[in-house]
Amino acid sequence: MGSGLKVAGLSPRKPHGAGASDPCFCLPVDDNLGFLPTFGPCYVNLYGSPREFTGFPDPYAELNIGKGEGVAYRGRLLVSLETKLVEQHSEQKVEDLAADDILRVEKYLRRRKYSLFAAFYSASMLQDVDDAIQFEVSIGNYGNKFDTTCLPLASTTQYSRAVFDGCHYYYLPWGNVKPVVVLSSYWEDISHRVETQNQLLRIADRLEAGLEQVHLALKAQCSTEDMNSLVTQLMDELIADCR
C-alpha cells in the first residue's frame, strides 16, 4: 500500500507548497469495503517553547521539535491526506501542487470575524514573584503583543504586583475592578464541520444513555416483553438520529 500526501503552506491570500505523491499504478478499490483513510484539507497548528524565555541553553527546546506539547503558537499547515492502494512501492517524489488541488482548497479559505471577550475574576495561589504580573490572551498571532503581522489589540491586562495572602501564597489585588480583554480575529469558517461533529456526539450520547437503560433493565431482571420493547425503542431512536 502506498499513500499520497499533499501539504500546502498558506499565505494570507493564496495557497502554495509542494505535494509528495507515489506514481505507482493504483489498484481499484471495492466500495463495499468502506473507504481508505483520509485527512483534511484542514489546518494543523504548530506550537513550541515559551517565547519569552531568553536563557541559554533553552530547557524547553525539545518542545520546538515535537517532543512534548508546545505552549506557544508558531504557525500552521494546511494538510490534505489521501491514501491509495498501489501495485508496488516506488520512490516518492516532491512536486508542485496541481492547479486543481489549489482550486479545491481555496473554497475552504473563506474567513469570518470572531470576537472574544474575557474577564479575569481572580488570580490567587501565586508563587512569590518580584516583577509585576500581566496576563495576555491570544488566538494564534492575534493578541500576541510581540507579533507585528496583526494589528494591536486590547489583549493584555494592566501590570499588577502580587500581594502576600498572609499564609503561603500571593494574589493580585484586583478587588471589585476586574480586568477585561477583547480580541477580534479572522479565521476560516468551519461551522459545517463543527455542526456535523455536534450531531454525531449527540447521537453517541443518546445511544450511550439508551444502552445504560438496557443494562439497568438486565440487572433488574425485567420481563422479556419489557426488554424487547426497550431495545426496539433504542434501535428506532438510533435509526431516526442517523437519517
TrEMBL record:
Record's keyword annotation contains Transcription: no
Taxonomy, superkingdom: Eukaryota
Subcellular location: Membrane
UniProtKB keywords: Membrane, Repeat, Transmembrane, Transmembrane helix
Protein name: Uncharacterized protein
GO cellular component, one term: T-tubule
Biological processes per GO annotation: macrophage activation involved in immune response; monocyte activation involved in immune response; negative regulation of phagocytosis; plasma membrane repair; T-tubule organization; vesicle fusion
